[in-house]
Amino acid sequence: QVQLVESGGGLVQAGGSLRLSCATSGRAFSTDAMGWFRQAPGKEREFVARITGSGETYYLDSVKGRFTISRDNAKNTVFLQMNHLNPEDTAVYYCARDPSGLGRYAYWGQGTQVTVSS
Question: Could you report the per-residue pLDDT of 22-34, keeping only the tens digit for each?
């Protein structure tokens, strides 16, 4: 059974940083693409960042230059380093696994809350 567990969320002041982690298990990790998504109150869930098995990365335009996605295949973990946070980044952040490599995220974590105060 594939599991994903996010951690690292919390309350931070505007301009601060957080590093989210997503530990996963249950199937081979290194070839799966991984993604981070977020959902703010009253809004649709949106894509934030993606990293493929080969290390290619993609970002939501509004987080480019501030957020960095990375992975440690030895630890079956994906990270999201978030710098220069602003209140618009407040949301529940979810990680997800895409075994297909086609943007079909089949497995999701429970989410971690990130709150940025002004």
Answer: 999 888 888 999 9
